[in-house]
Amino acid sequence: MRNITLGTLAIAALLAATPAIAQPAPPVGPDASKIEVKVTDLGQRTYMLEGLGGNVTVALADDGVIMVDGQFATMNEKLKGAIAKLSNQPIRYLVNTHYHGDHTGGNDLFGKDGVVTVSHVNVRNKLAGGWSNALTGAKSPALAEGFFPKQTYTDAMKLELKGRVAQLKHTQFAHTDGDTFVHFADANVISTGDVVALGRFPTIDFSNGGNIKGMITAVDGYLALSNDTTKIVPGHGPLIGRKELTEYRDFLVTARDRMAKLVAEGKSEEEAIAAKPYADLDVKYGANEQASRNWVRMVYASMKM
Ligand SMILES: [Zn+2]
To answer: How far is the CA of 101 from the centre of ligand 1 (A)?
Structure first.
């Protein structure tokens, strides 16, 4: 068992006075009235849906639909409308790749329609028990029971409908402590959740089990399942393939190795921030000063676990 608690508490105390930054959104979510759902056909009756919040994957079976992530509650009607255009079958399962509100905010409303929500057990524990964010000092209370996933698993789980299989697999201590990726082998599609987020620095939710080392291990797992025609649905950002996923892994390894060097030199967190170890990447990822500091903090915290 890793010694997370003491480090997390110390960091929380240190950061309690820092200004608020972007954090997992509340379950209801922002106004989505002007959002249009963009549907990308991945082949083999499998689709990527983009709206507001994390990317959604939809797999159609003969007797129902499997969904991966449900965005915010405010996207519920729009997502249902987009899926109804693809299939006249009911949505049977909604998988949560992790607990953040931009992926689980739809749980309650989909659940009321009879959709079975499914996740790693730590997602349910988090939503039922509340959580805190050491980066911001924010504390989030437990959600209402309607948001809790109805079925949970610990290592792996298979969801089967007529003609379709979704293989769910847990990867330890990556974006959070409850990450699931979903493999639709028949369509050669992998839905990663926020372990892969593109176009900005990814988030490592280190106060809730996130760790850059686990993110690299998780990405290695996706690469092992992929070939040149695999379609990878990231948690945020555009659909990618194996080549882009390999580049993303290289970025994570670079970030880890540079920080490992600073930590080995005995640098404190503030000294690591001052060293600007990712100045070149800040430019590439369009990071402002705050995003840059946060990325250093998240990687630094990872190296201390
Ligand atoms: Zn997330």
So the answer is: 8
